[in-house]
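User: Protein folding is very new to me. Would you mind checking the protein record under this note? It all follows right here:
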Amino acid sequence: MTAVFLTNYYNHHQKPLADALYARLGDGYTFIETSRISEERLRLGYGGDEQPSYVRQWYASDTEKAACQELVDTADVVIAGSAPLSLIQTRLRQGKLTFLYTERIYKSGVPLLKWPVHLLKALWRYVRYRKFYVLCASAYTPLDFLRLLAFIGKTYKWGYFPAVKRYENLEDVIEGKQPSTLLWTARFIDLKHPEHAVEVARRLKADGFNFTLRMIGNGALEDEVRRLIERETLTDCVELLGSMTPEQVREHMEKSEIFLFTSDRNEGWGAVLNESMNSACAVVANSAIGSAPFLLEHGENGYLYEDGNLDDLYAKVKRLLEYTEERKRLGTAAYHTMTEEWNAENAATRLLELSKQLLDGAHKPFPFASGVCSKADILKDGWFTARRERNGNG
């Protein structure tokens, strides 16, 4: 089998999956980047390392562009990420197997006035192609495409697959965590809602809990959050640690018992969820985050909370601080979710098996019952609220 991964540029986030696919396909795998990395991205640590032999650069020259187009047109399977759809038009018209790799497309809601135009564009871009499928890097991607009458019954669970650590002794990691520690890490911007983490701390202190909340990152809201912490007299239990390297963030995850993920629906995926679960944290995450419904089984390997419901968020955190064994149970299960299922090696294996079955004309195009590459069902906004109302609070 030959496979091409087509996207804007190669970076450390793409490397684990790319390496896993290359390990399975050898020279049958090619990663094609379509644009140069911006200076801003370079300053953030993207690029810089020597690229593997399987990476090719569409933009390097006219000769290379022609060679890359030939690879795209003739490969058995193509995964198209952040790249112009025009580059895959030839293979789509020829009915060749192609996956669109995308987060949700309507993070900010549905533009009703432009809806007829969106429907017409969807018909032209997606619906008319028989062998066009979606790898969903958000649990809400299928819903957004349903609104366009596109990819119905052709959506698969996918995501981002950062490097996974496997500890020699998981019990040592869990026992080595600092008691009653909470961690929040993100940019200090609106969609990440750092103020929600501070509100949790305010309530915990008012209820007499002994704890430490550490917040890593910086951004436009940092000074505002600092003032909020001072106004609520939380400086004795909330620490602002500033920006850190990914390695330093992981070290803090490994030392922390509870991870708070408070982003709203504008968080397309959220790779910190992968990393915190891999670090055996007991996670409390907003159910509206793209990765949360895929990675978390509520009450089994973490807690979800109702979008925008701070009472629900606080109740979940409070429960974890009250029950030490619950923290350990969820952290252990979260770790195993990452090491056994949601990792680059398993994703590569399953993607190739799925591709083989689709190429062979499988009558049942969903070979996996759950997890990576299983069917991504329609998950409506507010689904967790509806489930709570059916089952009672929990």
